[in-house]
Amino acid sequence: MSLSRRALLSTAGAAAVVAAVAPPAAAARPRNPRAPRTLRQIPLQGAVNVRDLGGYRTLDGERVRHGLVYRADHLGKLTDADLAALGALRLTRAVDFRIPLEVASDGADRLPAGVTAVSRPITDNGLYAQLHAVIGSGDPVRQEEALGGGRGAAFMAGVYRTFVTDAANRDAFGRTLRELAAPGAGPALYHCTSGKDRTGWTSWLLLRLVGVPERLATEDYLASNAIRAAHDARVREGLRQAGLMRNPELIVPLQEVRREYLDAALSEVRSGYGSLYRYVTAGLGLDPRTLAGLRERLVG
Fold first, then answer.
1. Which among 167, 239, 287, 298 could disulfide-bond with 248, CB atoms 3.0 to 4.6 Å apart, if both were Cys?
2. Is-above-0.85 flag for pTM?
3. What are the beta bridge partners of residue 93?
4. Which residues neighbour 263 within 8 Å (Cβ) at sequence distance 6 or greater?
């Protein structure tokens, strides 16, 4: 029988989980607030934003374990050396959040032998197709009309709202988190195309659910900007040199993560569910036992 929320509060080590997802007034304050540790990136040649999610300090002073959960951008361009590096992580499963159009464009994942590939598409609200069409047109007027004047950022905020409002998206996020909570599950990786939006929301949720303070979870989310900056700048310059975009700065809002995008999703959480706890339980289908399992498996 599933534990009630009250029973979860009395489960050893699980109080921090409820504190993390309860309404703000009920949340505990971290005992020793700290800046995040240096991000534990996995340097690869064919992917940019691959990192171990472990190392963050939780509300009760423990740490998220290293070597169990990895977040990434797409893995379709990995080199043989990259495969060897991933093989050393002893991954058992790689969950791909990309839609079929993205897979067709960037290629299916290249994975070490023995890693189970899981296709679990989460909609990008049409972003990938529209971006390709607009850029491919080479028409600066069309590009300005589609992306200028804050329209690119507004589109991104809409994508984040679907993380909460779309039932299929909720199912995909919930399945992924339940798998990560399963006793005895091996190290796992999840990713999308850039490793920042669908992957960023999953990572933010996971860190909050195991008791990491909101400030640190948000800093992990925003770290994709620094990690991807040089790569994204090269993409923009390539579009300029190819004559596809007169003003490639128009795509910066689509390349970045921003607090306003995260806030758009959280606004939907509040309006639709009232609290993060209700979103993950009623919306994602995570019962208190699963929340406690995430904490037990990933923190210590």
1. 239
2. yes
3. 116, 188
4. none
